[in-house]
Amino acid sequence: MKLSDIPGQGKAKQILQHALRTGKVSHAYLFAGPSGTGKLQTALAFAQALFCRSGDDDACGECLECRKFEHGNQPDLHRIAPDGQSVKLGQIQELQRDMAYRTADAGSRKVYLIEKADAMTPQAANSLLKVLEEPVSPTVAILLATHQGAVLPTIASRSQPVPFLPYSAEEMLEQLVAEGEPPLLARAAVHLASGKEASKALTAQVGFAEIRNVVIQLGKESLSRFTAALVTVQQRLSKTELGADPQLLLSLLVLWYRDMIHFQAGRSDKMVFIDQLDWISAHAFTKPAAYWVSCMEHTMGAAGRIKANVAPQLALEQLMVRLQEG
Known about the structure:
The chain is an alpha/beta fold. 53% of the residues lie in helices and 8% in strands. The protein is built from 15 helices and five strands.
C-alpha cells in the first residue's frame, strides 16, 4: 500500500511525504495515536517509499525495491513486535547486532519498525536509546505507540513526532463500505466500536444483525406498546442467545433514541437507523427532544445497573417501565 492509499491522516502523510520529497528524512519517527488509526499501514507504506528508487514522495510500486518489499523480500527492513506483553531487552540487542551489518545494497539505508514502542521494558528502552544516539549505519527508526507520553522521554525527544488522529465515524463508515461490509451494520458499528478494525469485527459478530432488529422492535414498542415491549424482552432476549450481550443491545437502543433527536434537528444524514427513516419521520415529533434525551438517560442507567450485577432481564423490564413513564 502506498502512502497515498492510506485513508485520512492528512497531517501524518504531509509530514512523511515532505521528508521524502525534500530528502530531509529523520533518523527516527514516533507514530503516536489510538489503535485503529492506520499507524502500522502507514509505517509500512513509508518504509516502502524509503526503499523505493523513484525519488518521489511516495513508493512507485514498480521498481525492483518496491517489488522486493511487496513480496516480503526486503532484508534491510527489521520489524519488532512485543514478545508477550512487552518489547524485551533481548529483542533490542538483536536489533543492535543486525544494525552492525552492512546494508544489502551499498549506499541504501536500513529501516526498523517497532510496534508498541510504549510497551518496551525499561531495559529495552534504554538499550534502544543507545541505538538512536549512536547509529552504526544509515538507519530510520519508526516507533509505533498509542500514547507518546508512555514512551521514554529521551526517546521521544530524539524522534520526529507524527500524530495519528481517531477516524471520524463517517470516515470509518466510508472505509468499511468500500471494503464490502454491510452498510446498515457498519453504520451502527462505527458508533459502538473503537477504530475501524473493531467496527469490522463487530459487523461480523454472530447475532449482531439480529440484535439490531430487536432494538428496532423495542424502540417502536417502547413508545406506546408497553406489553409488547415486555414480551419482546422476555421472549426474544432473555430466552435466546441474544440476551448474552445486553450491553450491546442497550448501546444500540441509545443510538435509536438519539436518531429521534437527529431527525428533529434536521440531521437525518447522521442517523444510524437510516433504513427506518419513514417510521422515525412519522414519530420523532410526537415527543419533545427532552423526552428522547430522558429515554437515552434511562437506557444508559439500565446499562449501569447491569454492570452493578442487576439481572439483565430485570434491568430491561425496569427500563421498559421507565420509558413508559417518560
